Amino acid sequence: MASKRHFFVLLSVLYASIQVSMAGDPDILTDFVPPPILFGPLGGNYFTFNGFRALVGAPFPTTFKVLKASMIEFPALEGQSVSYAVLQFPNGTVNPPHTHPRASELLFVLMGSLQVGFVDTTNKLFTQTLQQGDIFVFPKGLVHFQFNCNTTNSALALSAFGSANPGTVKVPSAVFNSTIDDQVLALSFKTDVATIQKIKSGLSV
Ligand SMILES: *[C@@H]1O[C@H](CO)[C@@H](O)[C@H](O)[C@H]1NC(C)=O
Ligand SMILES: *[C@@H]1O[C@H](CO)[C@@H](O)[C@H](O)[C@H]1NC(C)=O
Ligand SMILES: *[C@@H]1O[C@H](CO)[C@@H](O)[C@H](O)[C@H]1NC(C)=O
């Protein structure tokens, strides 16, 4: 009986560890991934990202803006399964529906408030109005958005991702600003080509 219980404990630990190892980017076989070409000894600088200093004392943007610290901007993140993005929402702006194919997202509202939501695979919408100090999780791969509906105040949020390269698929541009044939879109949206072209012309400017 005891050995049977042990077996189940072992099995569930094994299962949990598989889940953990599958939760992030592929594991690397070294402590970190150094730059491909080294000009001198590797130091703390390589593990430091200064890109967000641009935010300090800078005027708030007039349109929605994302500042990323992913593997592309910060190569030391390769293999570490983490990254950041700072999201700046002037009053009344939206981060349109999009997905991150490789990561879940943990959004922390630093300033202002945000209306957020995601849609699961059954098309159920989960939405919330977040206040300064709140944290919301967007499950990996699901379509989601953030909206600062406040007409006078801007909002600022910090998003953490469970991948060094979460990727972003913007729904409007993936569907209407790629080169998918108009006929395919017209049939898919049960409309005519002229309507599709009208939507497309709005996105391409
Ligand atoms: C906008 O934000 C300010 C400051 O938090 C708040 O006092 C005001 O009620 C908000 N307005 C709306 C329309 O939500
Ligand atoms: C809110 O946004 C509008 C532009 O949509 C801008 O003209 C206005 O100055 C903003 N209000 C504040 C208080 O920032
Ligand atoms: C649509 O595509 C064009 C050409 O690739 C690009 O310049 C433009 O920024 C895109 N617009 C949007 C809204 O993604």
TrEMBL record:
One Gene Ontology MF term: manganese ion binding
Domain of life: Eukaryota
Signal peptide: 1-23
Keywords: Apoplast, Glycoprotein, Manganese, Metal-binding, Secreted, Signal
Keyword Signal: yes
UniProt subcellular location: Secreted, Extracellular space, Apoplast
Gene3D superfamilies linked: Jelly Rolls (2.60.120.10)
Domain Cupin type-1: residue ranges: 64-197
Binding of Mn(2+), residues: 98, 100, 105, 144
Main location per the UniProt record: secreted
Residues annotated for oxalate binding in this entry: 95, 100, 105
Entry's Gene Ontology cellular component terms: apoplast
Membership in a protein family: Belongs to the germin family.
Record's function text: May play a role in plant defense. Probably has no oxalate oxidase activity even if the active site is conserved.
Quaternary structure note: Oligomer (believed to be a pentamer but probably hexamer).
Protein name: Germin-like protein
